[in-house]
Amino acid sequence: MQPRRKFVQQMAFSTAAITLGNPLIAAINRQPQKLRLGFIGTGLRGQAHLAMSLNRTDVEVAAICDIDARMLQMAGELIKKSGKTRPQVFTGDPYAYRKMLESAKLDAVVISTPWEWHTPMILDSIAAGQKYIATEVVLGITLEDHWEVVRAAEKSNAQVMMLENACYRRDILAVLNMIRQGLFGEIIHLQGGYQHDLRGVKFNDGVTPYNSGVEFGEKGFSEAKWRTQHSIHRNGDLYPTHDVGPLAMLIDINRGNRFVSLNSFASKARGLHNYIVKKGGADHPNAKQLFKLGDVVTTQLSCANGETIFLQHDTNLPRPYSLGFRVQGTNGIWMNLNNGIYIEGVSKYDHERWDDAAEWFKKYDHPLWKKWGEEATKTGHDGIDFFVLHAFIEAAKRGEPTPMDVYDAAAWSAITPLSESSIALGNETVDFPDFTSGKWMHRPNQFAKGALY
Ligand SMILES: NC(=O)c1ccc[n+]([C@@H]2O[C@H](COP(=O)([O-])OP(=O)(O)OC[C@H]3O[C@@H](n4cnc5c(N)ncnc54)[C@H](O)[C@@H]3O)[C@@H](O)[C@H]2O)c1
């Protein structure tokens, strides 16, 4: 173990039971040691994490790794602009990251690469002795990938946190606050969806990332280079974690509750083909490409405590962005599309009218947002990017468990292969694996319990 990590962990052990506002915590925050971070993948998402890390005084960007010269150059410009010391750069082949893991003496790793690389990169990080690994969504491709990561993390006592930023949305955390104070009563049903027109992301001109053309694969840039292949070959909810992650935290999944079963339905696939024809013409070679991914994939989940969840994956058709949350309990309901809340006996109006949710959210603003909101809103995705990286870094500095762990990552992300199986089996209901192997019955929900991280 490196001396720095040992120091951080010793401090953490001696302060294990210390809560918010304690001067010792403040002392840890002031400690001069910096967390040595390594970045695998400095594409558009990796650069966002890099920029936030360069902005922090408690982090040293020690090493970066990518295989794409343009992305490395863009990352280099961010580093130069920050005035921070130039990190070691690892590149040259798809496994250059292993050299980084072996030699860069890192305290923690942030992985922001194409989906199919997440599992091998996490497993290699664990094998190299890393104890804090943050990965972008999703955790893996197959169900086996998810099990492998869970088993490896358990065996090596490694913290694997999926950087699910949507869990830190201001409305979601206010709703969490309201649920914990009993306003919605017992939660009965939840809805959400990754409802995001990605046609201009799945295709581009190979230079400009968004809305610039109809190329993909080797001729595409950034996500068009790799993400579109998943729409060609797979039919399921390919991106469930932005919607299910926040909902799971609201109902204590893996912490007194768990997903029990799932089924999925896929509509026909038209949107991506139509986009190519509309933007590139019927004669464009990509107009011949077939896509397996249904334009709208709907998934239902049942939970051990009796809740039902309805998810939608909707990325190929024209539509404004919305995660379409609905949280409904025995006392009331929140829907984010109409920005409405109704709490029986408390709301201003009778049950025919909605309250403006904004008024409720102001009143029940979460302590995390009260403390960090100003700083957070300077970063991407309305501030949620700040919170998720902040949580990972603060947990790693203290040697504490990350607030979202490997069981969360596995359960949320496994919806993809399970939905693919369900659709392939003619919409059969499939059992949901218990990645915690029974530990869900005893684990408390500590997510967002205070204002520290
Ligand atoms: N949470 C969010 O809001 C959010 C937003 C965007 C993307 N993402 C996720 O972030 C991840 C990355 O997406 P992106 O938009 O940055 O894609 P991107 O294509 O812009 O970046 C991926 C990078 O990984 C690099 N890479 C690929 N193989 C590599 C290897 N073997 N070794 C080192 N580097 C390698 C690529 O060269 C590229 O620079 C994905 O999981 C995506 O779903 C999350």
User: How many strands?
Assistant: 15
SS-based class: alpha/beta
Unreliable stretches (pLDDT < 50, length at least 5) are 1-32
Radius of gyration: 22 Å
Strand residue percentage? 15-25%
Give the proportion of residues in helices: 25-40%
Distance between the termini: 25 Å
The CATH homologous superfamily of the largest domain is called Dihydrodipicolinate Reductase, domain 2
Q: What is the name of the CATH class of the largest domain?
A: Alpha Beta
Instruction: Just name the CATH architecture of the largest domain.
Output: 2-Layer Sandwich
- CATH domain topology of the largest domain: Dihydrodipicolinate Reductase, domain 2
Task: List the ligand species.
Answer: nicotinamide-adenine-dinucleotide
**Residue-averaged pLDDT:** 94
Largest sheet: 9 strands, mixed
Number of helices: 17
Number of domains as seen in the coordinates: 2
Key structural traits:
binds nicotinamide-adenine-dinucleotide, 453 residues, 17 helices, 2 domains, 6-stranded parallel sheet, single chain, 9-stranded mixed sheet, alpha/beta, disordered N terminus, Rossmann fold
